[in-house]
Amino acid sequence: MTKASSIKIRAMAAGDLSRVHELDTMCFSLPWPQRAFRYELEENAASKQWVAEVVSGGEGPSTVVGLIITWLLVDEAHIATLSVDPQYRRMKIASQLICKALRAEVARGARSATLEVRANNQAGQRLYYRFGFQVAGRRPGYYRDNGEDALILTLHELDEDHLDIIGC
């Protein structure tokens, strides 16, 4: 990313579906099928979808480099998926996506948040811990590709004050 570029977080659109699926395939050994992203965007009323795009200075082209999908289940936000293009990692893009998504879910009534993360994904766990997520449980053999366990992480007190305190 050049100095003239910036990151913009915006709602996912139908025109993003191909790139979003490409990112998911690039980032995960068990990617979602493209039709799942279309379902989230067009049919799942509980779902909110956001993308991060690199916007070049001026009127240059933009590129989607990250995505997050959350579901609101009663008063709990669930982070269903989060991915960032490996070439754009360690640039706080995932943090920006999480902030945008959690703020949107608080506005829809969320009071807590959950997610599953691979037990061996130390980088992902560190990211979520910075937001105040804590280990709430374990799902043995959750991931079909290698039988790895998932840790269930929960953020128990999700509200605007918490998001302000952590710098969202």
- Percentage of β-strand residues: 25-35%
SS field, number of helical segments:
5
Kindly report the average pLDDT value: 92
Which percent bin holds the helix content? 25-40%
Kindly, what is the distance between the CA atoms of the first and last residues, rounded to a whole number of angstroms?
22 Å
Spatial strand order of the main sheet = 1-2-3-4-5-7-6
Global geometry: globular
Low-confidence stretches: none
Order of helical and strand elements: EHHEEEHEHEEH
Number of strands: 7
Cα Rg? 16 Å
Largest sheet properties? 7 strands, mixed
In short:
This protein is an alpha+beta fold. It has 5 helices and 7 strands.
Walk me through the structure:
This protein has a 7-stranded mixed beta sheet with strand order 1-2-3-4-5-7-6. The chain starts with 5 loop residues before the first strand and ends with a helix. 30% of the residues lie in helices and 33% in strands. The chain contains 5 helices and 7 strands. The longest helix is centred in the middle third of the chain and has 15 residues, at 93-107. The protein is globular and about 45 Å long. The chain has helices spanning 17-27, 34-42, 93-107, 122-130, 160-165; strands at 6-11, 47-55, 62-73, 76-84, 112-118, 134-139, 150-155. With 168 residues, the protein is α+β, with helices and mostly antiparallel strands.
